[in-house]
């Protein structure tokens, strides 16, 4: 089986932490079948003027472990013309896909994200006469609100041979676009248990300079409004009275969604929390477990998510997770066993949940075992099984066509 992965969200030499969850899944799939990746990068001629990520010079081709990754450029017009991204992505990648196909006659296209990736992928699938599968991820929460993009999402999902979703919540959103429900399969994200494993807290804290006995909470995610680091900081003063030495670690940097780091620094200063909040910045993916192991609990006061595998990464390090009751979070975090859920935007409840989590007696081994049940290797087996079914369906359709003819 030859699989062409098509996604605009994928790590590169210039953006090593961008879309790691896609790569982690697909490099396990590549252990089971032949995989190559086309990860187009946006290009806009005047990117330097508007200071966006459209001028980053990615390598044209790179090898990441067992994956060969191609980075063709695709033209974008920022702002009001984002609804054209799907068409531009399709037109800009026809040549790259055609060239790759000469030596890699792929059997199907595996697209990640419904738009613009999924929309462009189904057009490529029609052009090259190959079935397309689409994985729904968290951006659907936002894009479904835009009328034109919603219409193109409907086209993509109705033309796909199968739709994978990382959570049931995203299926509910997709149904609003009238995609046929019979084609859905839920395949959540996984975790790399080789990289994410519990290090002795004493050792971890010595490595990052935190004293023993200090209460530590941690968030991992881009410095963007959606992730809610500012919501945790806002709730922190009510914890300082009970835990005078508490530290909140924020691991992450600016992302393609934006950068609120200056707002976070002003908020920290305004609330007098300079000794209680550390903006760690971006950390190499394989070093994040050291920071997680140094903490007592993990928190993400997010506005929306798909299936945040950072939850599983925290759990693999033995941490209970405190997060918001939004999207599919409730399908990962089991209250009382692996963490706590709070209503979105309720500062008082968030503070209470953090305090409860810090004072509760958690079964850390049970939390670790739950994370180990969702390894990327298990996820890859589910994905390849679905690929097989899609290709078998295609063969059956061809056979029926010839019989009828």
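^ structure tokens above, recovered residues below v
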């Amino acid at each position: 089986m030859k699989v062409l992965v098509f996604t605009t969200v994928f790590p590169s030499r210039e953006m090593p932490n961008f879309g790691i969850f896609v790569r982690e899944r697909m490099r396990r799939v590549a252990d089971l079948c032949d995989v190559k990746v086309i990860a187009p990068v946006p290009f806009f001629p005047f990117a330097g003027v508007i200071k966006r990520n459209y001028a980053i010079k990615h390598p044209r081709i790179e090898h990441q472990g067992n994956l060969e990754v191609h980075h063709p450029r695709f033209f974008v017009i920022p702002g009001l013309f984002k609804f054209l991204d799907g068409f531009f992505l399709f037109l800009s990648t026809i040549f790259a896909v055609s060239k790759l196909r000469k030596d890699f006659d792929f059997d199907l296209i595996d697209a990640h994200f419904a738009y613009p990736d999924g929309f462009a992928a189904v057009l490529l699938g029609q052009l090259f006469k190959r079935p397309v599968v689409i994985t729904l991820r968290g951006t659907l929460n936002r894009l479904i609100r835009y009328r034109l993009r919603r219409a193109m999402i409907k086209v993509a999902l109705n033309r796909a041979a199968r739709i994978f979703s990382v959570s049931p919540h995203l299926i509910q959103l997709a149904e609003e676009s009238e995609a046929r429900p019979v084609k859905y399969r839920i395949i959540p994200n996984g975790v790399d248990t080789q990289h994410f494993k519990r290090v002795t807290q004493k050792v971890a804290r010595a490595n990052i300079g935190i004293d023993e006995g200090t209460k530590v909470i941690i968030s991992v995610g881009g410095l963007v409004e959606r992730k809610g680091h500012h919501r945790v900081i806002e709730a922190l003063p009510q914890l300082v009275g009970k835990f005078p030495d508490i530290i909140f670690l924020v691991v992450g940097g600016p992302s393609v969604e934006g950068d609120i780091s200056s707002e976070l620094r002003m908020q920290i200063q305004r609330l007098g929390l300079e000794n209680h909040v550390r903006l760690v910045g971006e950390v190499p993916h394989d070093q994040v477990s050291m920071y997680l192991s140094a903490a007592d609990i993990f928190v993400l006061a997010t506005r929306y998510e798909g299936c945040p595998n950072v939850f599983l990464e925290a759990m693999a390090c033995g941490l209970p997770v405190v997060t918001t009751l939004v999207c599919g979070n409730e399908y990962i975090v089991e209250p009382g066993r692996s963490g706590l859920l709070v209503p979105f935007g309720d500062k008082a409840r968030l503070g209470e949940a953090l305090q409860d989590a810090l004072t509760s007696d958690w079964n850390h081994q049970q939390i670790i075992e739950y994370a180990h049940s969702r390894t990327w290797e298990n996820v890859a087996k589910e994905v390849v099984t679905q690929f097989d079914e899609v290709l078998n369906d295609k063969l059956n359709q061809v056979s029926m066509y010839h019989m009828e003819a």
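Residues 203 and 216 are 14 Å apart (CA to CA).
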